[in-house]
Design brief:
The mean pLDDT is about 85. By secondary structure, the chain is mainly alpha-helical. It folds into 4 domains: about 150 residues, no CATH class; about 70 residues; about 80 residues, no CATH class; about 60 residues. The chain contains 11 helices and 2 strands. Strands 1-2 form a two-stranded antiparallel sheet.
């Protein structure tokens, strides 16, 4: 500090005045300008932390370094100003590193965006040929939101990928609209068919021609199923009409059948008694007598009249079983009395007996001549024919009247 109160600071370029303190204490003057230096040093320290921590963009960091450098260069402060400038110069190297890191990070994000956009375009193209009409539209919207969230890449690549994505969206949207247009057309046609079927069903609801009308209702139901779905509200309304008419007819038919069943209950009792009589014919011992007895029972059966619908299958099945047993007995009786078959069986027995007699003579002759080989061959043939003869006699016995 000079005698006139001027305060100087030493730098690499030499001494330079930083201010005057003409009437004050020299120590206070020096302390005042040192505090200014300390403020600048703190500002440099904070700037170092921000630059090295990556809290400033390279552009903002360069601007801040330039600004602080200007403050240090022209500072009215006492301290190691050259040291502060050296630290600011060192930040230029850090700033270059940060610029490189930013550049590498930007390139990485661009490549990630390119990969993501290529995937989005590929997914959209795959979806554009699918028939996933329920989830496809939502998926396309998701892909579009993903695209919007990504940064742009180089213009040529970005435009090319966008054209792929946009074209796929357009293709899918067009196909989806066409699908639903055709679906609506089919549903409208189904509605017209079901309207006609419901109207016809309502016209048949009061019919008392139970058999033909029930068959017609079955036909209408087949046509209803074949018509396919229509709009739910319309389908529910038409089905209520169709089902209501169907229920009305079959309810009336069931009521009429119930009345008839009451009338037929007595006939069922008669037929059950006839069945008990018929089933006593089984097992059949005399086919001819059983047939005559069954004929009389069948005549009474027909005369007894109809039975309740629920009993028809059971009663008819039992009667048919008795008739089949009698028919089987008649077939067996006929087979046993067939003269042609009996003659063939008797002829077989005779032929085997004659063959055996001839073989026995050959055996005796061979033994007398001492020809053991021929004797054994004759014996083997005799044993085989005796076995055949036993079976032939059994067959012949089947023709004996029993």
């Amino acid at each position: 500090m000079a005698e006139d109160g001027t305060v100087y600071v030493k730098t690499a370029a030499g001494e330079r005045p930083v201010g005057q303190w003409p009437d004050g204490d020299p120590d206070e003057a020096l302390q005042f300008f040192v505090k200014r230096y300390e403020g600048l040093a703190l500002e440099v320290t904070l700037l170092e932390k921000r630059v090295r921590g990556g809290n400033l963009s390279p552009e903002d960091a360069a601007s801040a370094i330039k600004k602080v450098r200007g403050l240090v260069t022209d500072a009215q402060a006492v301290g190691d100003l050259d040291g502060l400038l050296t630290r600011l110069d060192a930040l230029q190297g850090t700033l270059a590193e940060k610029r490189e890191e930013r550049r590498a990070e930007r390139e990485r994000r661009v490549e990630e965006a390119r990969t993501a956009k290529e995937r989005i375009a590929a997914d959209a193209e795959a979806l554009s040929t699918s028939n996933d009409w329920r989830n496809g539209a939502n998926r396309m919207r998701e892909l579009l939101e993903q695209w919007k969230a990504l940064p742009r890449i180089d213009r040529a690549s970005d435009d090319a990928l966008w054209r792929r994505f946009s074209s796929a969206r357009t293709t899918y949207t067009r196909r989806r609209k066409q699908h639903f247009a055709e679906l609506n057309e089919r549903r409208d046609e189904a509605a017209r068919v079901k309207e006609r079927l419901a109207t016809e069903a309502e016209a048949l609801a009061g019919s008392t021609e139970w058999g033909p009308t029930a068959g017609r209702f079955r036909d209408l139901m087949q046509q209803w199923k074949a018509a396919g779905p229509t709009h739910k509200e319309t389908d529910d309304r038409l089905w209520a009409r169709f089902r209501g008419a169907q229920d009305q007819f079959f309810g009336a038919r069931d009521a009429a059948n119930a009345e008839l069943d009451k009338e037929y209950a007595a006939n069922q009792v008669v037929k059950e008694e006839l069945l008990a009589e018929a089933e006593k014919l089984v097992p059949v011992s005399d086919a001819r007598a059983a047939r005559e007895a069954f004929r009389e029972i069948a005549e009474k059966w027909d005369a007894a009249g109809k039975v309740p619908r629920s009993a028809i299958k059971h009663l008819e099945g039992r009667l048919r079983a008795v008739e089949q047993a009698i028919r089987d007995a008649e077939d067996d009786r006929w087979r046993r009395s067939n003269p042609e078959a009996q003659a063939r069986a008797a002829d077989t027995v005779s032929q085997l007996e004659a063959s055996i007699s001839e073989l026995e003579a050959q055996r005796a002759k061979a033994e007398a001549a001492g020809n053991e080989r021929k004797a054994r061959e004759a014996l083997s043939a005799i044993e085989a024919r005796q076995a055949w003869l036993t079976e032939a006699k059994k067959a012949l016995d089947d023709f004996t009247p029993r």
